[in-house]
Amino acid sequence: MGFNEISFVICLLLILKFLKEKILSARLENKTTVITGGNTGIGKAICKAFAKESSNVVIGWYEHEAEALNLVDEITANNISVKAIQVDVTDEKSVKNFFRTAIELFGDIDILINNAGIQKAQSITETSLEDWENMMSVHLRGAFLCSRAVTSHMTNRGSGAIINVCSQLGYIGRENYTAYSAAKGGLVAFTRALAKELAPQGVRVNGVSPGLVDTGFDPLSDEVKREHASRLPLARLGTPEDMTSAFVFLASEEGRYYCGQLLHPNGGEIMP
Q1: Residue at 147 is within a domain
Q2: Which residues belong to the active site?
Q3: pTM for this model (two decimals)
């Protein structure tokens, strides 16, 4: 093979590589994704990953406004349409206003990721009724209100995806996380039931159940995190970025046959 032929082959391979990367970075092009709790932790990483896949992004935030605005600037710099809107996922009126605004801005919603959540480590004797109800409200009432708000838009169109952020603690529990574990366990059941209800109308509902992820917002000490990581088969904690591929997969055409499934990026801690 002569020099010209070799040069041609190299150029062809580079073109094919470019086209492959272009296709893979546009799996959600012309889609609009809503992510609640999207300005910090796992939610922030999801927003950035979906923007990289060319999806319009609606960042639902309740606290930490500065983080939301900074994320908008970061995503906008990459020529992706993005909007940050404050929402209290436990308040019915706030949720209705949030989704009405999102639809007015983008026309429709293709993907909903119910990520908003809270954590609090305390024994059951230290858990007040208010603590318990707040945990259930954010995780379960929030997922219910947000899912209900988008269902008619998705079913009328005959397509859509809802992805709930669950947790491995919804399966195995953890001491001093009784309320959180119960809320996440309820969210697992909610995911499976809603999947069966909406699948005949073209809407796929799935979930992601991460293991312990080092987001900087959990109440565990560094010592506890290191000890936990040492017991994992992969010998490290997950990062928010480790979680994002599961969400992109479930939201994209690649996940079209997944219904009522829970993916488990957890470093091998549990293998359901």
Answers
A1: yes
A2: 180
A3: 0.90
